[in-house]
Amino acid sequence: MTSDAPSVPIIKVICDDVSAQIRSGALAPGTKLPSEREMGEDRGISRMTARRIYERLESEGLVSRSHRRGWFVSEARLQVALMKSVSFINNAAARGKDAGSLLLQAETVVAPEFTRDTLKLKRNETTYLVRRLLRLGNRPAAIETMYVACKRFPGFLDHPLTGSILSLWEDRYGITVQHADAILRGAFLSDDDAGLLGVPKGSPTIVLTQTMIDSCGEPFAYDRQDWRFELAEFLIAADFQ
Question: What is the pTM of this model?
Fold first, then answer.
């Protein structure tokens, strides 16, 4: 007698198996997983099917690719509480995570058009441009691009820019972020940014943009962070009355 029950696709069977091992802790964060060829030979599937399995697990944030090194079990995602702080380093510290940054670029530039509108700047007015590679431990996590109004922060580029810039604004200039307009959206990394983050070209990213506004309601900085999508999740609280 034959069963009328539909068979479960092999991709789902293997995904569920690997997922269960990760969620139970049998496969610890940072564990190197079999290569696509090795999985194919072990499970009796094609290398292309093995790749599709890893890509599905990657979309769930359970595994991640390291350029030229293979597939690994993902670390727990950093939860970024947007209503608590606009600072990546402060958010990470609040979660007990070791965070830092590598300065990629720091210079004075004529404000791009979109920042002129956002920061209420005049034509040909200058801003400080700061680009950093944000890190969680030793892992590259995001590319940050920030434009800061020069007139509000004289000598800004003379200060160390690898720590919390939020603290620099407060401690050196007495300016605090009273409010931030934040937008989240999905996109794809540029080839250069993918290389800096150690992921394949064309990888997806979570883009967080924030406009910093002071206690007088004046915008003074625009910040964009392009995140490796498997490393962070963003907490937004809303009260409905």
Answer: 0.71
